[in-house]
Amino acid sequence: MFNQQTTTDSQNQQGFGPGHHRCGGPFRKFANKFGGKSPWDSVLNSSFGNRKAVNIEEKESSFIISLYAAGLVKSNFKISFTGDVLNIAYAAHKEDATSQSTYTYQEYEPVSFERSFQLNGKVLTENISASYTDGVLIITLPKNPETNKPGQEINVN
To answer: Which pTM does this prediction carry?
Structure first.
């Protein structure tokens, strides 16, 4: 299986300034020229910032995708299958302005993300199941016996 990751606009809207605690001082003037956002946020967030860790385990009858997602709300996940691609998306909802906390320092903020996995016809898509327990989203992908045949060894004469 091949996997890829994309980011959403809500990820890319993080930046410099009060409430962001990423950078201040002389960089604040620079950031304000770009609407209060760092010009590098979209690049850094898509490459490093909010990538959700995934383990893919192959068992005899299935593939198991374990996506580390601690602190996220189960109902905000959307798992879909289009073509031969499995998509895992999370939609982070901003709190109402009146109920937002004022942090002295903040390193964690739930953000939207999306991960995609190319299945290459190796999965019975009608039997895919998912669960979210202890901060880990587990997706079970039953193998398609037609396309998951063991390799053959060929003797060279």
So the answer is: 0.64
